[in-house]
Recover the amino acids of this structure.
């Protein structure tokens, strides 16, 4: 069996291709310049963004172009 390791949406149970990257940090535990990354498909961009924004974690949403050198956390 060959597994697909292409970048996928971070929403639970979603296996759609990543289209967006949501850059965030938790100011209680991360330095201001630290960015963690969630990936989102078009269908889950808004819900994942809302989840992070409601907690004051969302910093930036940008198109996801390539996984070359990307660190997803």
């Amino acid at each position: 069996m060959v597994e697909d390791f292409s970048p996928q949406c971070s929403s639970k149970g979603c296996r759609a291709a990543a289209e967006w990257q949501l850059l965030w940090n938790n100011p209680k535990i991360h330095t201001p310049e630290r960015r963690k990354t969630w990936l989102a498909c078009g269908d889950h961009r808004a819900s994942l963004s809302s989840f992070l924004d409601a907690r004051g974690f969302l910093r930036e949403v940008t198109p996801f172009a390539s996984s070359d050198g990307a660190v997803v956390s």
